[in-house]
Structures are given as structure tokens and as C-alpha cells.
């Protein structure tokens, strides 16, 4: 579900937004360090973008994989598509319970150990949503070029 400030996303990005000019993915099943592999995938796929933009995409991808590991049973895969207008990260897990993902993530209490991941996703991604895919769920985060820029 989109965050409170996220616009609705088309369910089929390819038909609505064109095909990516690059697409990278990794199967995380059995991966010893899935978050490290995810961070490296994003860094390798976005070498030419501004560092702040790349860091936002790296952080969001890392958070989504961490959430999949903690709440979704296990992370199944992560992919990154690069489009002329930006980038899309998709993290799949094996749990189809999309109701467990809050529609409006709240900032955790200062003394809380967890609870900041989706709040960060909501703040850093241009838009995001979650959808069931029959074998689990997908969390999709979209980054428009320049989305990581601050005024």
C-alpha cells in the first residue's frame, strides 16, 4: 500500500512506465548475507547516479530485505530496474500477508529498537506499495531521478 505521501503506483509498471533499460536481480534463498548482497547489487547497478540518490536506494533496498527476513519468513529475491525516469526496487518474500504492512508507517519511539524501516522507505522513496503475487508478496519502491535531492 502506498505510504501517506506516496502516489498510487500502477500495478504493472512495464505497461505503464516502459521497459527498464537495465535490470539486475539476485535470488536471496540460501544467501548467507542477503542484505550485504542487496546493497552491492544496488551500488553496482547505479554507478553513474549522484551518491545521495544511490545511498537512498541502497538504504531502502536494505530495509525492505531486512523486513522480509524479519517479518516475511525469508527474502526470496531482490531486483532493480533502471528506467529513463528513475529506478524501481522490488523485494519478494514468501509471506502473502499484505495486511501486516502498515499503510501509514509511523516513526518509532526514541527508545524503540525496531520500527523505523517503513518510515524510512516512505520518506526516501518517491512512491512504494505492497502486493500479493500468489507465492508471497512484493514490496515495490520507486525512485524518480532527483528524488534523493534535498533543497
Describe the structure.
Helix 2 (34-45) packs antiparallel against helix 3 (51-71). It contains four helices and five strands. It has a five-stranded antiparallel β-sheet with strand order 1-2-3-5-4, with helices on one face. Strand 4 (127-132) and strand 5 form a beta hairpin. With 151 residues, it is of the alpha+beta class. The two termini are 27 Å apart.
What sequence of helices (H) and strands (E) makes up the elements? HEHHEEHEE
- According to DSSP, the number of beta strands is 5
Shape: globular
- For the residues shown, what is the average pLDDT? 80
Low-confidence runs: 1-11, 147-151
Radius of gyration over C-alpha positions, nearest whole angstrom: 14 Å
| Gap from first CA to last CA | 27 Å
Sheet/helix structural class:
alpha+beta
Helix content: 25-40%
Strand order across the biggest sheet? 1-2-3-5-4
Number of helices in the DSSP assignment:
4
Strand content: 15-25%
Major sheet: size, sense and barrel closure? 5 strands, antiparallel
Short description:
The chain has 151 residues and is of the alpha+beta class. Helices cover 30% and strands 25% of the residues.
Describe the secondary structure blueprint for this structure.
Layout: H1 13-17, E1 22-27, H2 34-45, H3 51-71, E2 75-83, E3 86-93, H4 117-124, E4 127-132, E5 137-144
Antiparallel strand pairs: 1-2, 2-3, 3-5, 4-5
Amino acid at each position: 500500500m502506498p505510504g501517506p505521501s506516496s502516489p498510487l503506483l500502477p500495478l504493472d509498471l512495464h505497461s505503464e512506465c516502459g521497459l527498464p533499460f537495465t535490470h539486475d536481480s539476485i535470488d536471496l534463498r540460501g544467501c548467507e548475507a542477503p542484505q550485504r548482497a542487496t546493497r552491492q547489487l544496488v551500488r553496482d547497478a547505479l554507478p553513474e547516479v549522484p551518491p545521495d540518490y544511490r545511498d537512498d536506494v541502497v538504504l531502502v533496498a536494505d530495509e525492505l530485505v531486512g523486513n522480509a527476513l524479519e517479518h516475511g519468513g525469508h527474502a526470496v529475491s531482490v531486483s532493480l530496474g533502471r528506467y529513463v525516469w528513475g529506478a524501481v526496487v522490488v523485494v519478494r518474500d514468501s509471506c502473502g500477508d499484505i495486511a501486516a504492512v502498515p499503510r501509514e508507517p509511523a516513526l518509532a519511539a526514541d527508545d524503540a529498537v525496531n520500527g523505523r524501516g517503513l518510515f524510512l522507505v516512505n520518506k526516501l522513496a518517491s512512491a512504494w506499495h505492497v502486493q500479493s503475487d500468489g507465492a508471497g508478496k512484493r514490496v515495490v519502491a520507486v525512485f524518480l531521478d532527483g528524488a534523493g535531492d534535498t533543497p
